[in-house]
Design brief:
heterodimer; A: about 130 residues; 4-stranded antiparallel beta sheet; 1 helix; 8 strands; elongated; B: about 425 residues; alpha+beta; 3 domains; 5-stranded mixed beta sheet; about 60% helix
């Protein structure tokens, strides 16, 4: 490739990549690909009895080495315990301490097998008068 | 960070396409008796593109590490854990080792005589390098028919590299032939004819694999027009259509003109100039397609956009069941009144999707426990005792449940 030709290629390539950089900065930073498809307790559920674990099935298989689920209670205390368990390629579970009535937040972050990192929050409530 | 990741991904795609395109052109497309240094020049350039590919891959690894470390420069511990403890990290490590070995081999060969059969081997050895990218792409995350999706992605990558990467190599050759009075035009016509055949086969493969992958990753026309991923895919399809049109012009006009020039046995520089311009524009479109591909790799596939949106909505009470419209589900295993040992229950079922159905939700005693896209799956952690398993057909939004379900009673011992 001669120098002028290489120069022209470089300009066009830079323009194309530049457009994508502009596009990238105006697009919401969504890298991710694995999202909860099913969670137990269900997102937003109000339970009569406290669950013993939280289970999440994602839309894609995930990598356990870089995946975490933490459950936080009404007073911001961590109520999840033990290691995150892999139930299937796309499903994980984390154990819970005995829970009282109140609002709970499930913070999750996972790395999917196609290299993307996602994170988010699910919520559930234990109704007063439960065990 | 997203833009940088997309740009580095695009550079990686372009570099690997040029590696294959230049090796294949040097090894298989150049007819014998070519201008002496041309084959070696192409092979040396392929080696340089291999180095660029390695640099882009190193950059991609750093970005991956930064994503895992919340945007900070990744520590060596994070990178090492990623490379050794994850599937995509393992693939990256193996691919880079392979690419380094290929680069060393290629430099050894091209510094020597650069014999034809050695360059042909380099072209063949480049194929796994290109195809291996499918092992970390969206294809690997497809839940059903994963191996088909990976195979289609590999074919797609190779076909694109042969066509678009080969075009840049063709441009190099045609430019080199300009002004060479001693060059036999028959040689040039043979060369164009060989590339034309390769491009035709590549486009056919590209079309079939692309169609299948679009169906897998986009899913519907709605997601094609309503999601970022779908919109970028439409841009890519537009560029593909433009490239295909130009390719057809080259096939129907440039190629016959070069053949006529070969019959006249005199190099026509104005025709060569015209061919150079057309091939250059087609090459640029090819590079732009790689840029869109790089951007697509950092966007969630359209079929997952509904999950992304779902994160922003508070969950609602389950809506009323919608008409089945041809959807149905039949539980095959466990059978009614079956006893199961242990807390794992293997499911097998027949799912008819009808107009709206997409997958099945599994309920144990009325509680949602799992989602299954194929026709089998596993439910874990089921407590001892008698349970009612119900499968319901659900639309692709995971919310709309259809009036299509089946129930069995089973006992966990």
């Amino acid at each position: 490739m001669s120098r002028p030709m290489f120069f022209r290629y470089s300009i066009v390539l830079s323009l194309v990549l530049g457009l994508f950089i502009i596009g990238g900065t105006t697009t919401p930073p969504v890298w991710a690909h694995a999202y909860p498809a099913v969670s137990v307790p269900n997102n937003g559920a109000t339970l009569k009895e406290p669950p013993s674990e939280v289970r999440i099935q994602f839309t894609e298989a995930i990598e356990m080495a870089f995946s975490a689920v933490t459950v936080v209670g009404p007073n911001k205390e961590v109520v999840s315990q033990g290691k995150l368990r892999k139930l299937a390629d796309d499903t994980v579970a984390i154990g819970l301490k005995p829970l009282q009535a109140g609002n709970y937040t499930v913070q999750w972050q996972v790395l999917s097998v196609d290299t993307h990192v996602t994170e988010g929050v699910l919520r559930f409530t234990i109704a007063p008068g439960g065990k | 960070m997203v833009a940088l990741e997309a740009a580095i991904s695009a550079i990686g795609y372009i570099a690997q396409a040029l590696v294959l395109g230049f090796f294949v052109t040097a090894g298989y497309l150049l007819p014998g008796s070519e201008p002496e240094p041309l084959r070696r020049t192409l092979a040396i350039r392929a080696c340089r593109f291999l180095i660029i590919f390695l640099c882009a891959s190193a950059g991609a690894l750093l970005i991956q590490g930064a994503k895992l470390q919340r945007g900070e420069l990744p520590s060596l511990e994070i990178l090492w854990r990623y490379l050794t403890a994850t599937q995509s990290g393992n693939v990256w490590l193996l691919r880079e080792c392979y690419a380094v070995a290929l680069a060393l081999l290629a430099f050894t060969i091209t510094r020597g005589a650069g014999r034809l059969h050695s360059i042909r081997w380099l072209a063949l050895l480049s194929l796994p390098l290109i195809a291996s990218r499918s092992l970390t792409s969206h294809a690997v995350a497809v839940k059903t028919q994963t191996s088909w999706a990976i195979a289609a992605d590999a074919v797609h990558l190779i076909a694109t590299a042969l066509w678009a990467g080969g075009l840049v190599a063709v441009l190099t050759v045609v430019r080199a032939s300009r002004g060479q009075a001693s060059l036999n035009p028959i040689w040039l016509a043979q060369f164009i004819n060989r590339f034309s055949r390769l491009a035709f086969i590549s486009v056919a493969l590209l079309f079939c694999a692309g169609l299948y992958l679009s169906w897998v990753h986009v899913g519907s026309l709605t997601t094609l027009v309503a999601t970022d991923s779908g919109k970028v895919l439409m841009v890519k399809l537009g560029l593909f259509a433009a490239m295909l049109t130009l390719g057809a012009i080259n096939f129907l006009s440039t190629k016959p003109a070069v053949r006529d020039m070969a019959h006249s046995k005199v190099i026509n520089n104005s025709l060569v100039d015209k061919a150079i311009k057309r091939i250059a524009v087609e090459s640029m479109l090819g590079l732009a397609i790689f840029a869109t591909t790089g951007y697509l790799t950092v966007l969630p596939p359209g079929v997952h956009a509904l999950h992304t949106e779902g994160q922003n909505f508070p969950p609602a009470q389950p809506p009323a069941l919608q008409p089945a419209q041809g959807a149905s589900v039949k539980i095959i295993a466990p059978v009614n009144n079956q006893s199961v040992n242990g807390d794992r229950v293997e499911l097998s079922f027949e799912l008819t999707k009808g107009k709206q159905g997409h997958h099945a939700h599994a309920y144990i005693d009325g509680e949602l426990m799992g989602m299954f896209e194929g026709n089998r799956g596993t439910l874990n952690g089921i407590k001892p005792g008698q349970h009612v398993l119900e499968l319901r057909v659900v639309a692709d939004d995971h919310q709309t449940e259809l009036d299509a379900s089946d129930k069995v009673v089973f006992t966990v011992k």
